[in-house]
Amino acid sequence: MEKKYTPLEIEKRLSTFWEKKGFFHASVDREKQPFSIILPPPNANGAMHLGHAMFVYEDIMIRYQKMQGKQVFWLLGLDHAGIETQFVFEKHLKKQGKSRFDYDRDTLYQMIWDFVMQNKHVIRGQMRQLGFSLDWTKEKFTLDENVVAVVYQTFQDLFDRQLVYRAHRLVNYCTHCGTSFSDIEVADKENEGLLYYLKYPLKTGGFITVATTRPETLYGDVAVMVHPQDKRYLHLIGERVILPLIHKEIPIIANEHVDRKFGTGAVKATPAHDFEDFAVAQTHKLSYPVIIGFDGKMQNTGVVDGLRVNAAREETLKKLDALHLVDKIQPHKLVIKVCYRCGRTLEPLPKEQWYIKIRPLADQAKRLITAGQISVYPKRFTKQLIRIFDDFIDWNISRQVVWGIRIPAYFCASQKKWFVSQKPPSKCQICAGQDAKQDEDTFDTWFSSAQWPFATLQTISPEFYQYYYPTSVMETGYEILRPWVARMIMIGYFSTKQVPFRKVFLHGMVRDKQGVKMSKSKGNVIDPLKMVALYGADALRAALIFGTKEGNDTVLPEDKIVGMRNFANKIWNIGRYIKSSQKSKIKSQKLDSTNLKILQQLQKEQKQLEKKYHTEMGKYHFAKALELIYQFLWHQLADYYIEQLKEAIRSGKIEALSALKKAYLENLKMLHPYMPFVTEAVWQVFHGEDKSIIENSIS
RNA sequence: GACUGCUUAGCUCAGUUGGCUAGAGCGUCACAUUGACAUUGUGAAGGUCGGGGGUUCAAGUCCCUCAGCAGUCACCA
C-alpha cells in the first residue's frame, strides 16, 4: 500500500469495476423489498454544479439500502428543459452572430438536439466521477419517444376529463424570449419607478386625474374606475371621459377594489395589459383593445405605433405634457414582473393557451399529504407544501418555444373546436375534413417533469413499474417544491391513482462564504469536478454532508473538503497499519488482563456505534451518522485503540490485531455509502481486487 | 403584510422528546514525534447559546416579546 491514499486513479478503476460488476443494475426480485429513487433529471444544457453534487444524499440512501439487503434502483434521467435549454442555446448562437430567427423550426430543433446529446454525455461522465451508483443501463430522457407517448396519454386523459382547457386570457409574456410563462416562473424585481398623475378630460368639462405607472397604455384604456363609496367621485360615476390624444370616449365606473388612498383614488383600466383590469373588463363586459404586440412594440394606437414600450411612454408623456395634461410625477417604488431567464420586463398580453384546471388535483394532493401518504422531511416543509396546494392556480402549460414536446392538440377551423390526438390524425376528428391544424406550441417542461416517476418506470417495463412504483424517496432541493414536487404529486396521483413517492427528502442550497447562493452569473461557483480532481470524490461527498443539518443551506469552504480528504487518508492508513502488521510474525500468546479489557471495551463500543448508526440512518440524519463513524474511526479506533494495542501487536498477539481488523472492516461498511471509493479500495486490499464491499451487509 | 427558518467558540455549523463540567470541523497557541498516517499525535486557550421577560427543581432546548438576517407567498393602479 502507498503511504498516501491517491484518489485519482483508484476512483477511476473502481467506477469501472462497479459498473462492470453491475451491482446497481436494477431488476425485479420479488423475494426482496424494493427501494427506488428517481434522480431529479439534470437539465441537459450544461455541466454539473454543486447543486447536482447534493444528489450524494441519494447515493448514500441507495448504497445503504443495498447493503441492507434491499433491491435498489436509482434511475438516471435527463431533462430537455425546454425554455432553459433554448435560452442557453440561443446564447451560443449569439456568440456566432446568429439567432433563432435564422433557422426554421425543424433545423433549430435538430441543432438543439445535437447540443443536448453532447451535454448528456458530459453529465454522465461527471456523475460517474462522483461515484453515483445509478443504473447506467436504463437512462431516460424526457424526449424519449415512449416517454412522450406517456405525456401525450396524460394530456389526453386530462382533456377527456375536462381538466385541461383552452382559454383566452392574459399571460406573462417575455417579448425577448418569445414565450409565455406560468405564474410560478415569473420573477419579481423591485424598481424605483415613477407614478404619473394624468388629467383625463371629462365630456361635461373639467378633468378627472388618474395615477398610473404606465402612461403608454392610455391607448388601451376602456374605463376610469373609482371606489363606489368615494364621495369625491360619486357624482361622476356614469359620466364619460374623453381619452386625450385619441379622443375616445370611455365611462367612469365604480369598482370596490379601488384603493381610495392610492394616488387620486381614480384608476384607469387597461384590460388587455393588466391582470386586474382584465378581470374588471370581464365583469363589466368591457372590450380589451390590444395595443402592445408580442414583439413588444406598440400597435393600434394611431399615435405611437411601432415604438417599444419605454419609448412609447416618453413619447406619450411628451404629447400629454404639451396639452398640459400631466399633473405631477412622483417617485414610486414598484415591483415589476420580469422574465426569470433574461431578466427583462414581462408584458401581460392576451393569448389563447392551454390550462390545467388545478383545483381538483390540488385538493386531492393536499389530502394525500394530510393523510400522511407522503411524508416530508424535514418536517417543516409539510406546511409549506400544503400552502402551495391551497394557493395553486390554473396552470398555463403552453410555451411558444421550439425545444420541447409539441402539444398534440388540433384545431378544426370549420367548427372552431379543438381535439386531442396522440398520433397525427388522418382526418379532423370534429368535422372529418382535412383542415385540422396542430397547435404550434410545446408543453411547459414541468408538464413532462411532473410525470417523471411514472413516465420513466412505465416505459422501462410493466414489471418495473409495478415493482418499483410508488418510489421510495424523492430527494431534491427545497427550491423546487412548488414547480416540481407539488406538480408530481398532483399529476402522479391523477394518472396512477397512487402517490409517486412515499417520502420527500429535501436538501438545502450550497452557498458561498458570504452566504450567497452560488450561481454562474455571480461567478461564485465552486466547480465540483475541480474539487474531485484535487481532493477526491469521497472528500467532496463527505464535506457536503459533514456537520450539516438536512434541509438547511450549507456553506462549503475548501478547508472542509481538505479536512475530509485527510479523513480519507486516515482511513487508508489505518488499513495500511493493519495490513502491514499482518505480515509480521504471529505468535499466539495470551493477552494480559489490561489488553483483554481494552478489547472488550472495543467490542462494546463497536456494538453501541452500530446501533446508533442505524438509528440515525433510519431517521435520515445522515450528517449525524457520518459524524459517529468519523469520531469513532479517527479518535477512538486510531488514536486510542491502536495506540493502546500497538505494543501487544508488535509482539505478535494475533487476537489484538484481529479484533482491530474486525472493528475496522465493520466501520468501513458503515462509511461506504458516504465515501465509497476509499472504503472499497481498502476493502479490496484485504479481500482481493475481485471482491467488493458492496456485496456485504452492514451489521 | 402572512408564513417558515436562522441568530451557539475567531470562521462554518451540530445540539433529536428540556436533564450531569454546551460539542464538531477548520483556525489559534504549546509540546511531541519520523515507529500506519505531517493529509500526524497529545494538550490548551476560546462561548453571559441575538436582547428582554416568563414557565420549571432544571431552558441553548418550551412560551411571550423585541431586534437583525434569509426564504416563500400575497399586495403593489
TrEMBL record:
GO function term, MF aspect, one: ATP binding
GO biological-process terms attached to the record: valyl-tRNA aminoacylation
SUPFAM superfamilies named among the record's database cross-references: Anticodon-binding domain of a subclass of class I aminoacyl-tRNA synthetases (SSF47323), Nucleotidylyl transferase (SSF52374), ValRS/IleRS/LeuRS editing domain (SSF50677)
The entry's keywords: Aminoacyl-tRNA synthetase, ATP-binding, Cytoplasm, Ligase, Nucleotide-binding, Protein biosynthesis
UniProt xrefs under PROSITE patterns: AA_TRNA_LIGASE_I
EC number: 6.1.1.9
Catalyzed reactions: tRNA(Val) + L-valine + ATP = L-valyl-tRNA(Val) + AMP + diphosphate
Pfam family, one: Anticodon_1
GO (cellular component) term, any one: cytosol
Database matches in InterPro entries: aa-tRNA-synth_I_CS (IPR001412), aa-tRNA-synth_Ia (IPR002300), M/V/L/I-tRNA-synth_anticd-bd (IPR013155), Rossmann-like_a/b/a_fold (IPR014729), tRNAsynth_Ia_anticodon-bd (IPR009080), Val/Leu/Ile-tRNA-synth_edit (IPR009008), Valyl-tRNA_ligase (IPR002303)
Domain Methionyl/Valyl/Leucyl/Isoleucyl-tRNA synthetase anticodon-binding: 607-696
Aminoacyl-tRNA synthetase class Ia domain sequence ranges: 16-553
First-tier enzyme category under EC: ligase
Keyword tRNA processing: no
Record keyword Cytoplasm present: yes
Similarity comment: Belongs to the class-I aminoacyl-tRNA synthetase family.
Protein name: Valine--tRNA ligase
Protein's organism: Candidatus Roizmanbacteria bacterium RIFCSPLOWO2_01_FULL_41_22
Classification of source organism: Bacteria, Candidatus Roizmaniibacteriota
